[in-house]
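Z., the sequence and structure:
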Amino acid sequence: MSRRVLAGAIAMAAALTATGAGAEPKITEKTNFYDLKGTTVEAVRADVRSKGPTGQGGRRFVGLTETFVRYRFWYDGDDETCKVTNVITEVEVTFTMPRWVDRERAPSELQVKWDRFIAALWVHERGHHDIGVAVARDIERTIVDLGRLGKGGPEFRDFIQGLAKVHLDDIQPRHDKYDRETGHGRTQGAGVILE
C-alpha cells in the first residue's frame, strides 16, 4: 500500500485573459484490477505476494494508488505588473486493486473477512487519492493568491512554477506520512489480508 507517485507539472503560460480561477481540480480516476485465485487464506496471500502491485523498493502490496497532478495557468500584464488570470489543476488517480475470483467458492467466513478487508483497503487507498487532490488545491490556492506581481515573461513563469514545485515535491512525503500513520492501512482494517 505504498505509493509510487508520479508528480508531474505542465505549466502552460499564455498572455490570455481567462476567468474561473479557484475552481476545483478536475479528477480522473481509473481502477486496474488484478485477479487473485485460491479458496484458502494461504493460497490468496501467496497470490498477492506474486501478483500484487509493486511499490517503492520493489515491495509488493495488496493495493496501490498512483496520483499525477498537473496544472496550467494563464496571466495578463504589461511592462509594469502581471497577474495570473486563471489556474486549472487536474489530478489523475490510478488505483490497482485485487479482485478475488474464487470468492464464491471459498468458505463463507473467508468471504466475510474478504468483504471487510476490501472495504477497508478502499478506505485506505481513497486516502491517497485525497492527498493528490489536496496538493492540486494547494497549488491552485498558492497561484491564485499571488495578486499582482512584477512584469511578465520567463521570470514570472519560472517564479510560479517554482511555487507549484514546492507542493509537487511534497506529494510523496505526504503519502509516506499517511502510510506511517495508518501502518499502510492496518489501523483502518486493511492490515493482513483475510485476517
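The beta strands are 26-36, 64-77, 82-100, 148-149. Residues 108-144 form the longest helix (37 residues).

Let me know what you think.
H.
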